[in-house]
Predict the structure.
Amino acid sequence: MRLAGLSSDELQVLDVISVFRDWAPFDILTSLLTKTPLELLYLCDQLKQKNLLTESTRGKVLGYSFTHERVKAMLAAPVRVRAPHPASARRAIS
């Protein structure tokens, strides 16, 4: 599962969905994101095709959730940056 290839808009949608416990209603997503409903539907469809989101209805309300809890965990995980080896850092400076 790779998030590196996603657009900034796709990542923004995933970030907003990640704050919901298990399911994000589409109407609330449209009020939180600065996208038109059509733009948001397109982005969610792209994320469904990439197997990151699933679409479902509860009652008559459309919403989205992650295909797997690992997707949500990846969004919440801190980015780790490895410090260069001291010898490599010296070579880079000189």
Q: What stands out?
A: The first strand starts at residue 24 and ends at 25. The helical segments are 8-18, 26-32, 37-49, 69-76, 86-93.
